[in-house]
Give the backbone structure.
Amino acid sequence: MTATESPTAAWWQTLYDRPIGEIFLERPDASRLEREIDCLTELLEVQPGATLFDQCCGTGSQGLALARRGFAVFGVDQAEGYIQQAAAKARDEVLPAVFVAADARDYVPPKMADGGYNWGTSFGNGLDEDDHLRMLSAARQALKPGARYVVEFPNMVCLLRDFQAVLTRRKTLADGTWLVVRESTLDLHAGALLQRWTIFAPDGARREVDTQVRLYLPHELRLQMERAGFIDVRLLAAPSGRPLGSADARCLAVGRVA
Ligand SMILES: C[S@@+](CC[C@H](N)C(=O)[O-])C[C@H]1O[C@@H](n2cnc3c(N)ncnc32)[C@H](O)[C@@H]1O
């Protein structure tokens, strides 16, 4: 932990800052984002004009893209910097998107939505399963009867089989070159993927953040969705939307409100 990090802060309150947004949340190309948006709109069975809830929206990549297609979007994320960035883009482009900085474990938008999603391992963070259930329950409360909800998460079967102990990413941004090294281990007792992120800034400063994600197997993700009150939960591959197989790196759990 560095001097600037609070010992009581949850890891997502310290990791999601610069340069994680630029390196991990900005899609490498427009076609990848388009594929994700096509996948979401098909699975949610929504048409332009519908209201969507982007739970843990990050820098707003998907919410902004959906608003450009004519959807009304409510995005929530705890990272204020990301929310300011997303809101500024929505303002500049005059898009029907509202972005709010809040804790997604409790946040329910003021207007019920026709569909919702939680994309990119924003679920299952930390080891407290009650917290995870709270986030799913908040999503359910945010949705109209019959509305669908999508969670996109690592397919832990594939992740464990092809375990990648170290990942490095280097990116040159306006202020210089950043380097991120992510070291992964497993805590089999706790059932968690543990990762240490070491972030090297262009000025030589370095910080470390330790993160934990619950090792939910796909069927456990389905069970959590069902516990939160979703019905007809299906497991699919992301972003193709095809039935999930063990070789698919990312999975989708898609359920609906009764
Ligand atoms: C890997 S990012 C994915 C962002 C976005 N969904 C995307 O696909 O670009 C995970 C996001 O979840 C947010 N997050 C995690 N826990 C949260 C919580 N309890 N409340 C609000 N946001 C949370 C983080 O701040 C981060 O922006």
